[in-house]
Amino acid sequence: DVCSSDLEVNRYPRTREQDLQRCRDAGVDVVFAPECDEMAGSARQTWIEVGELAQPLCGRSRPGHFRAVATIVVKLLLSAKPHLAVFGEKDYQQLAVIRSVVRDLGFDVEIAGAPTVREADGLALSSRNVQLHPVARRQAVALVRALDAAESALASGELDSARLLQRATAEIEKAPLARVDYVELRDAISLGPIAGKLVDPALLALAVYFDSPESAAGKAVRLIDNRVLDPSRAAASR
Q1: pLDDT tens digits, residue range 208-236?
Q2: What's the predicted TM-score (pTM) here?
Q3: CB contact at 8 A, 167 and 145
C-alpha cells in the first residue's frame, strides 16, 4: 500500500511479514520495500498533480488522495525501474490515474491491471476487511450484490442509467450498517459522467461505509468495488 498522511496511513493494516512469506512461497527473488519516511517525507515540496481523472469518485470524497498516489507511484517507478507494474482493478480510478501519469510523463514501463480477487462470498479482498465488525462483514456482501443486480438488469435489456443505479443502490440499502459514499456510473475510459441510456462501456463504481453495531465500538470502514457494464456484450448474450 501507499505511504502518505494524505492516505490515512494509520488506518491501513500492515502485514509485511505475511507479505514477505507469500513472496518467498511464490519464488520471488527480491522485494523492494522502502520505509514510509523514505517515500513520503514531511518536507516535500514537489507533487504530481492529475487533472480530470482525479476529480470524481474517490477524488471528490478524499481531496488530495490522488496527488499523493501519483507522487508516491512515480517515486516507486523511478526507484525500482520496473519493465512491468501491476495494479489491481478494484482500485479502478487509481489504475486509470497511474496509466495517465505514465503515459503523460513518458515512463518506459507497462502498467497492467489485475482482476479483482474476491473472498468466497464475493466480497473484494481488501486490507480493510479485517477491520469490519463481524456483523458488518456479513452485510458487506451488499457491494457485490449491487454490482450483480445492475449487471443482471443490463443483461435483461435495461439501459437507463438512472434505473441501473437504482437497482444497485437498493441492494446496498438492504444492509442496515451501510452508508453510501457514492454509487455512480462513469465512462469506463474518461470517467466522465453518464446520463440517459448506456451506449458505451460504463464503470459502475461503489464506495460504502460500514458502521459497527450500536453495541460495539469501532470506526466506520470504507469499502470500494466496481464493475464495467458493457451494453454491447450484454446485447450479444441475449
Answers
A1: 999 999 877 778 999 999 999 999 887 77
A2: 0.90
A3: no
